[in-house]
Amino acid sequence: MQERVRLDDAQINRDLLNSIFETPKWYWPLVGGLGLIVLTGFAAAGYMINHGVGVTGLNRPVMWGFFITNFVFWIGISHAGVMLSAILRLVQAEWRRPATRAAEVLTVFSLMTAMMMPLIHAGRPWRVMYWVFPYDFARGVYPNVRSALVWDPAAVFTYLTSSILFVFIALVPDIAVLRDRSTGWRHILYTVLALGWRGSVRQWKLQLIAGILLSAIILPIFVSVHSIVSWDFAAAMSVEGWHSTVFAPYFVIGAVHSGVSAVVTVMLILRWMFKWENYIRKEHIESLAKLLIVVATTWFFFFLLEFLFGLYSLEGPEVALRELQVFQMPWKGLFIAFLLTAYFIPVPMWMFRKVRRSIGLMLFTTILVNIGMWLERFIIFIPGLARKQSFTFTWGGYTPSPVEIVIIGATFAMVSMLVLLFSKVFPLIPLGDAKEGMILHDEIKIGKVTVPAVKREE
Amino acid sequence: MHELHHPPPPSYLGMTAQEITEDVLQRHESSGRQFWVVAGVLGVLLAIGVIGFIMLLSEGFDDRNVWGYYASVFAYIFLVAQSALMVSIALRMVKAHWRRPLARISELFAVVGLFNFFVYVPLLWALPVTDGRRSIWFEFPGHSPHLWDTLALGLLVVIGLALLYFASIPDLAAVRDHSTGSRHNLYRRLALNWEGSKHQWKALQVGISILGGFYFMYLVFTHMLISVDFAMSLVPGWKDAIFPAFHAISGYQAAVAIIMVTMSILRWKGGLKGYLEVDQFWGLSKLLLALSLLWFYFWWAAFFTYWYGRQPAEQSVLKFLMFETYKVPFFLAFGLSFITPFIILMWNVIRKTIWGPTLAAAIVLVGAFFNMIRFYVPAFSVEDSTLHALDVVPAVNTPGMADILVTIGALAGAVLVYMLGTRLFPIISMWEMKEGLLLQKVRTFMKIEIKVLAKPE
């Protein structure tokens, strides 16, 4: 049931700009703490670059480990932005309103974080440009444009560029509100960024069209990014378990599962931090939870397809890989934990309305999903590489080193810190959307009951 | 088929509940002459199909190749009819008010599912056991697909019929209350003492939700069984994890298309212009566009992984199913299921018409037909399915007279069964329309008229 909250424009401005104009006591200590973790991560990366990738747990034939897992994980989180913002905007879902900005911002920051991972993984980050840019710099050897590793940066960069544009276009009216309420350097910054926004009919119309156009254009990019990431693996013929036709949609839907869960986590934390109970309401969380049930179940179907058709041909190496994943420690434990956390605990819980409307339980279950989805990537990538192949004479396993663990931990701190810093400069719930929601809100009387309703122009 | 007797009503939002009941019941009671003429022609075509079937039977089941086109037609009707219910189920799940006029049109396809079950049965004799070949049944007995696929398809048909029946009970009661004699007796039995009590309404809503949710999941599962057992597992070297999902997506696409084509026919000949308006075509055309794009994406994911991999076994499969042996049905399917509907439906101006979405939908239905041909005919033409790769690519199987007759007969039978279904169940879901009247209002807002849609729990 929709809660009937009526708020006027002035109160919406006041409430949603509180993160910018007021600084809670916990804010800077928290940002500082997170910053410290990020610095530690950079120090660890510096140490690794100085001493070489030998300080990681990577060992032949497992040359992709925590960093690549984390790269795919953050790319996955970045899919929340488009899923929630673009698709829900196109289908005119009213409950999208408080979630869009948080989702878009999470997209941008998680993409930036994801892009750092292959750079760090390379060990000599500056050399990466020789490998990925389709240009012959000095050696008379062009990079192989037929390699999935070259498509990756193109796709991710395109997604990052369009996501930043997407966030910015939606931000312009809110920046103008900030411009009119700020002084000093902030006023100058907002004046420049507001692009002369006055809120005329023409400007709103252009903004609306730009939003819809960008939503439609960004959708194929959104699908292509994780598809291409999946082909980093599916195009590798020599590793068991990777060459599967289902990988692209399986990765995309998995990304949406983890991304939307992450947005719910972020929204719940923001609701608590900035006291946005009137904006991020239980009805919104409930709708997101219903969406998650569908997304999670679709993802699980694709997981079953991937697993089933891995075994389908009953080829020895493929069966051995699945045995390794499911029956041998430590993979067995991780596999069970992955299934429980990514699907079997959260989804049955979401079937109950009480859970969908419980802030604590939704926070718990959405965090569980992301633990599970991180493990999923780890279980897909590492056992396949760890399987002994023909002509692999030096055969080691993989155990992550402290350096890798610190760097991975720092990425989580970095995304959290960047979201918090963003909240200090821009509103994390779109003011215009919140106000439009109030205008479109209506009621219909049926007998003795009044039912919440929404106005639709078409 | 009674446009002459009953002129089309104005937009149903301008009608009262009483007017909707009277109008729909009047149309339901009397079927015009045209209706029975068309039904008769379809009956004759069905009989011709039976002759084709007897011709196929006379060739026996030893040569699987004989049954390739028969399997394709079965798969096509399965694809279209069993998925058609999903349109109503999915739109009801997301509480789209514009679904109301098309809910019964979609659910009535359950009766076609029943017809198709009878089409399916002879295929069991043509399907080889799984011993010695790749299949999803691994160490299960060799006849597992015969048993489990039949049970799965049968149960799917039963759930579909249960959903149709359950969602029709209030309307069957309305027919009961407005009829006399034997018709009254029939509908009295069918309506199961429906009185419209609060308890009954609650049970109805819960029942529809559970049956709908179950049908959704079960349909995907059945797609997997049928597509793998009757196509993929018969072709050595074809190991394609996305194929069941692609099959299901093709089904949803064809489902949306058949609903649109049916709606157009009902507008044209059934006098339902007042119920089936641009709103419904616009909504469905957006879905059709999205599904056409997904069709391409799923196809591309499979094609690309095979093509890029350069594995000999996979290259043979590509040549067999797409680029050499069956290139004609493949390119027709690709053009009609993706390129043409995409070009037509990408324009909002066209999506907001009746003719545009109908044209795209009709094209998609033809594309879906060729899509099934390019899977099932080649699969049934492989002589030895126990090999690890397609060492020798079989020759193309062109349709013979029996194949053409069976195809025409089966399609005519499916349409005939649907038409007869409209005589038993009112084609417009009256109770959902009346519920829609309560939950939708047209109000003036800032000088323009807009729709206000209630969003109850």
Structure description:
The complex is a heterodimer of chains A (458) and B (457). Chain A is mainly alpha-helical. Chain A has a single domain (9-454), classed as Formate dehydrogenase/DMSO reductase domain (Formate dehydrogenase/DMSO reductase fold, Up-down Bundle). Chain A is built from 19 helices and two strands. In chain A, strands 1-2 form a two-stranded antiparallel ribbon. Chain A is globular, with a radius of gyration of 23 Å. The mean pLDDT of chain A is 87. With 457 residues, chain B is mostly helical. Chain B has one domain. Chain B is 70% helix and 3% strand. Chain B is built from 17 helices and two strands. In chain B, β1 and β2 (448-454) form a beta hairpin. The longest helix of chain B is centred in the middle third of the chain and has 34 residues, at 144-177. Chain B is globular and about 70 Å long. Mean pLDDT of chain B is 90; it is low at 1-5. The A-B interface holds A 1-2, 94, 223, 227, 231, 234-235, 237, 243-249, 297, 301-302, 305-306, 308-314, 442, 444, 446, 451-458 and B 134-136, 138, 217, 220, 224, 239-245, 297-298, 301-302, 304-306, 308-311, 388, 438-439, 441, 443, 445, 448, 450-457.
